Structures are given as C-alpha cells and as structure tokens.
Structures
1.
Amino acid sequence: KNQVEQSPQSLIILEGKNCTLQCNYTVSPFSNLRWYKQDTGRGPVSLTIMTFSENTKSNGRYTATLDADTKQSSLHITASQLSDSASYICVVSGSVTGKLIFGQGTTLQVKP
Amino acid sequence: DGGITQSPKYLFRKEGQNVTLSCEQNLNHDAMYWYRQDPGQGLRLIYYSQIVNDFQKGDIAEGYSVSREKKESFPLTVTSAQKNPTAFYLCASSIRDRASTDTQYFGPGTRLTVL
C-alpha cells in the first residue's frame, strides 16, 4: 500500500533555532515529492518540489533533501521565525497513477 | 488578484440537510479538485475534474456530489448521505491533471460543522 509517514507529529522550538522534519514513503514507482506549508485554518502552499533525480532543493530558509534509495525526505528550517509556525505536509506522487499521496503533516510551533 | 476562492469560510449544517461549498478560480486552470482534511490525517481526494462537464470520483466520493459547468467553478455538495461530514474542505486547481508535474494550488478552505 502506498503510504507517506511524517515525523514528528508535532514539534516546539524557540525562535532562531533550526529544525528538521522527516518524511518516509513507500510510494513506488515514484515521480516527485513536494513539501507544503499550511497555516492554521488556511490552504496549503507549495514550498518545494523534487523529482527522483534531485537530492536537494532550497526555498529561502527552507531546504528539502531527498534520498530516493531509502525513500526518505527531510525539510530543514534554518533560523526559525514565529511565522514558521504551521503544519508542514509531505506529498508524494506516484509515476504510474500520478496520484498524490499526502502525509498527515508535522505541526511546528515556534516560540519567542 | 488571481487565485482560488472558497466560500463560506465557516458553515454550519443541521443533520439531514444538503449543503453546497463554493470554489472559484481565475487562474485559467483546467483541473480542479476537492479534498477533505481531518485532524491527524492526510488530505483525502473526494472528486476531481480535468475539464468542463467532466469529473471523476476520488477515494471518498460517497455522500458527495459535484458539477463543472464552467471552467472557473467547481462546487461541492455535501449530501445527507455523508455520515461524518464535519471536516475542513479544501479546493485546489492545477494547469492540467498531471500530478506528476503540475503543482496544485489550494484555496483557503471551508470548515463545515454539522450540528
């Protein structure tokens, strides 16, 4: 069964600190992996997208990595800000069906 | 101001009533989608449409209906047959229906509560 599992479920960090969110998937064959940011009560917004041939992609203070061999991805946030408080969703696309498989998300809270 | 709009933001419904959620986009996207989001779960696809006057069931279509009479609009009706309708509903659109390449852009969502 194609699945996407994210960890931790929730995370609290102090402003200015770095953090790393994890995403493990079993989707195969695999086409691409996206990270979305979802503010509370809002729709998700795309942060990065990586194909199977890419192993890193940055968007400002957000850096996503991908290891297609171990089927793992991480999202690293540098010098966190209060506005980073949100849920971060990992989404994997299968190359056969093209279907999107969504992880359950990691809720990040940045405290002053 | 381009984007996807959903209305209303909050919706309350009594058991046994049908209710329609609005989704409009001015991005000139061909494909539109409806998802349901529940706490602790990933988004689940309800219905999607690749082109006007055509739509397909997603993973959890039972108790829902849609129409796509215009490219810009993809309303979702939550019928009384939906057993657990209380959820956050998200509409999305993409240039085409190719999830392998096309990014989906999401609306702000509608929170439906059944009283």
2.
Amino acid sequence: AQSVAQPEDQVNVAEGNPLTVKCTYSVSGNPYLFWYVQYPNRGLQFLLKYITGDNLVKGSYGFEAEFNKSQTSFHLKKPSALVSDSALYFCAVTFKNAGNMLTFGGGTRLMVKP
Amino acid sequence: GAVVSQHPSRVICKSGTSVKIECRSLDFQATTMFWYRQFPKQSLMLMATSNEGSKATYEQGVEKDKFLINHASLTLSTLTVTSAHPEDSSFYICSASDTSGVLVDTQYFGPGTRLTVL
C-alpha cells in the first residue's frame, strides 16, 4: 500500500526567506509524486510533478521539489517566500498502473509573515 | 489549459432533499474523474473513481446508493447526494485526468462545492 507523510502540520517563515515543506512517501515500485496547493474554500491547484528524469523539478510560482530516492522524500522548496504563498500544501503519490489514483498526505499549512 | 469547473460552488439544502453537483473538464477529455470529500482542516478523502461510460468504483465505506455518480461524457461527471442529511455537509471536490496517454497524467481539480444541509 502506498502512503504519504507530511510531518509538519504548519510551517512558518518570514517573507523573503527560503521555505521548505517536507514530504516522504512509501510506494511499491517507482513513485509518481505531486505537489498541490489549496487556498481557502478552493480546490487544489497543481504545482509540479515528478515522473522520471531530473530529480529537481521546477513548477509554478517559483516552486521546486527534489526527488530523493534513497530518503524517499520529495520536499517542496522556494528560494524566497511571498505572503501570497500562504496556503495549504498537499503532497501526493501514485505509481504506474495505479489508474492515476492519488494518495494524499495530510497537508501542511504554510504561513508567510511580512 | 487543464481547467476543471464545478457547479454550484455553494449549496444549502434542507434535510431529505437531493443535490446534484456537476464537474466539467473545459479544455481536455477527462477519461477518468474522481470525487473527493474534505472535512475542515483535513486532507482529501477519495469517495469514488469514475471512467467515462462505465460505473463508478466506490471506496470502502462510501454508500453508492447515497452518492450517485454519473460520467456520461468525456467532459462531464455528476455527483448526486440523495436524501441529504446534516452529516453530509462537507466540501466536495472533483478532479479529472486524461488517462488515455502512455504516461501517468496529472489530476486537475475543480474549485470545490460547499454543501450545507440544514
């Protein structure tokens, strides 16, 4: 069975500082990994995904994530946080032949303070 | 591209009535659509998966007779909450993907529907 862990319920960072939102996963076979962002009372917006290729994936709004197979991690990063980045972030995993079914982490609330 | 719409965005109904929520993929063909439920400050709970033209597959614990899902076309899926009760109040989110490709494709999410049952 596949699973995703986001160990931090909330991450606080000052505007302009780098941010990291952590994600670790467990899946049989090669993982397909995703990050989504959710603003209040809205659906999820796709940020980026890792399927294969370069371990460092660049996505929307200046976000990037690094796939680390040995640590089974896919942490989300941004060099300089904006107040508007404050939202709920979800990491998700699936794998080939899973019918595109995602397993989500519990979510991490990112608070960027001016 | 890859826009998914949901309608209505918010609905309030009386207990015992039925509510239909529409999910549309606007610029791609959604061979597979997913319906999720999200409780406050919690992650998404998958309710069911539907493939165009076939019956939906429900997750364990989800009543298929209560949550009717229809995926009649490649751009539209509907979720009908039948005989709604206050405990059905929640945020319902759909997503759509095109799984006809060789690679795993991304799920694109609708904006969600806030259902309140009085």
3.
Amino acid sequence: AQSVTQLDSHVSVSEGTPVLLRCNYSSSYSPSLFWYVQHPNKGLQLLLKYTSAATLVKGINGFEAEFKKSETSFHLTKPSAHMSDAAEYFCVVRGGATNKLIFGTGTLLAVQP
Amino acid sequence: DTAVSQTPKYLVTQMGNDKSIKCEQNLGHDTMYWYKQDSKKFLKIMFSYNNKELIINETVPNRFSPKSPDKAHLNLHINSLELGDSAVYFCASSQGGHAGRINSPLHFGNGTRLTVT
C-alpha cells in the first residue's frame, strides 16, 4: 500500500528566508510524486512532479524538490520565501495497482514580514 | 480560458434537499475526478471517470451520483443532503486514464464550498 506523510502541519518562516516542507512516502512500486499548492479559496495547483527522471526537480515559483530513495523522502524547498508563498502545500504519491493519487494531510506555510 | 471550471462556487442548502455541482474541462483530458476536502483540508477521492466510464468509486454513500455526459463533463448530484456532506468538492482532470500515465498530473477546479444547514 502507498502512503505519504507530511511531517509538519504548520511551518512559519520570515520573508526572504529558506523554506523546507518535509514529505516522506511509502510505496511498493516506483512512485510518481507531486507537490501541489492551494491558496485560500482556490483549487490545487501543480508545483512540480517527480517521475523517475532527474532526482532534483524544479517547479514553478522557485520551488524545487529532491527525490531521495534511500530516505523515502521528497522534501520541498525554496531558497527565499515570498509573502505570496503563504498557502497550504500537499505532497502526493501516485502509483501501484490502482494508480490512485494519495494526498498528504497538508502543510500550512505562513510567511511573516 | 479556465481549464477546469466548476459551478457553483458556493452552495448553501438545507438538510434533505437535492443539489448538483457541474464540472467542465477544456483540456482535452480523458479522465475526470471528484474529490472531497473536509474541514481539516484532507482530500479524498470520490469518483473517477475515464472516457465517460466509471473506474473508481470509493466508499461513498449512494446518495452521491456522478454523471458524465461526455468526457469533458462530470457532474455530481447529491440526494437527501446531510450535515456531514458540508465540505469543499473539487473536480479534476488528467490525461492517460487512471491506469495509464502514472506521471500525468491532475488539474483541479477552484472548488465548490457546500454548506448544509
């Protein structure tokens, strides 16, 4: 069975400082992994995806994530936070027999001025 | 030029009523989904259709009935609404079918906030 765990429900950073949102996954198959962002009262927007090509994946808005098989992690990072990055972030794993997307419980990122 | 659009954005109704939420995608995708997001932001798949055929039906009460008139539309009808149905419902689409392209991301609509009083 597949699962995904987002290790922090809330993360608060100051504007201009680095962002780290942690995600660990469990999968019996070679998974695809995604990060989505949800701004208030909006739908989910794809930030980036890992699909067994390069382990370091670059996404939109300066975000990137590194797939580490040995650690079963897919942490999301950004060198410098912007106020507009304040949102809910979801780590998602896909694969297995049913190929369903399994969503993490989300991490709420707050950016302080 | 909205990719996945769903209506209405807000829906407030009383217990026992029947309501529908509509979804349309103009991305040419062959697979569409309904997700439910609860008050704790947890997202759970409800249904998935591929080329108008139901392929995923999670443990959802049969008061919920999806309908796909064509592959660009997936509507959700809910009978006898209950308080526990209050949530945000998201429509999404992807290409390649649910058992197809593993790396195909989902494109989401902006959600319908359903409040049952």
